[in-house]
Structures are given as C-alpha cells and as structure tokens.
Amino acid sequence: MCFSLIKNDLNSFLLSIPSPEDSSKKIDIIVFPKSHSITVKIINNSPYIEYKGEFMARIHSVNNNSKYLNSDVLDEISESLNNYLTNILTEYLYKTSIDYKSDINGFGKYSLTNFLTIPEFEKYDWKNSYKDSVFNVKVESLVDSSILITET
C-alpha cells in the first residue's frame, strides 16, 4: 500500500486509525489520494527527500456517541489520520532505504536536477547513496463525515 501511496496509483483504501476521542477505539476511514509532490536535494552528500501528500477521506464506521458532523471532531480525526499516514509512510521509506537499500519508489529520477550532467549523476552513485537518505514526510488530509451519516 505505501508504494501505491507514493506513486498515487490507488483510487481509495480503507484504514482503521485511532479515535481522537478514545485511543483504545478505532475509526474506519476510506482514504482517497488527491495529489503528491516529491523533492530531492543533496545535502552533505546525502539525499534529502521530501514527500508531500494530500488526501481526502470519508468516515466509514460510526460510534454511537460520536459527533461526526461537528467540524472540531472532524478536524481531530483529520489530524489523527495525518499522524497515522505520516508515521506509516516514514517507517516504510526508512525500511526501503536502510534495510533493503533499494529505491523502489524511483526517487532517483527526482534527484537528477541536482546534477548538471549524467556522468556527474553516475559519479554520485545514487544506488549506493540512497541508503543514507533522510526523509521528510508531510501529509494533509481532509476528513468528511460522509453523506450517509446523520445525527439524531
């Protein structure tokens, strides 16, 4: 799933995230990737990779006492989703770079702007340098209560 989030080739996916009201409970949310941007800089001879992703989401499960039509509650759920996605994406990216030493997300193509020529890029040796990458993941999500939810 993380690979697809980075590539933005998912239409939607279902997540269970901690409820901001009670962290022992989960909220099921359908998430729709909207857009993303990737920037790669070379800082102190190491790749610095910034991933920014935007997501829309809809609440899929309902708790009896929740106020999902309240904008403050929806903001709290959005923040919980932001934190959840940031954590899983960051863990995934470090696993690919440190444990697998493999740029399966294709960040190397975004690093080309840091080099004037292809021989300069080849001399940098992206394949071996990727394991030293530093990641900065930023996620923005907007959670909607869904048109199916009504309050009594």
Strand content: 25-35%
Helix percent reads: 25-40%
Major sheet attributes: 4 strands, mixed
| Rg estimate, integer Å | 19 Å
Structural class designation: alpha+beta
Strand order of the largest sheet: 1-2-3-4
Helix/strand order:
HEEEHHHHE
Catalogue the unreliable spans: none
The number of E-state strands comes to 4
Mean pLDDT comes to: 88
Terminal CA distance reads: 36 Å
The number of helical elements comes to: 5
How would the global form be characterised? elongated
Short description:
This protein has 152 residues and is α+β, with helices and mostly antiparallel strands.
Description:
The chain has 152 residues and is of the alpha+beta class. Helix content is 33%, strand content 32%. It is built from five helices and four strands. The protein has helices spanning 2-7, 71-99, 108-111, 118-124, 126-129; strands spanning 13-18, 26-43, 46-59, 134-144. A four-stranded mixed beta sheet has the order 1-2-3-4. The protein is elongated. The chain starts with a helix and ends in an 8-residue tail after the last strand. The model has no long low-confidence stretch (mean pLDDT 88).
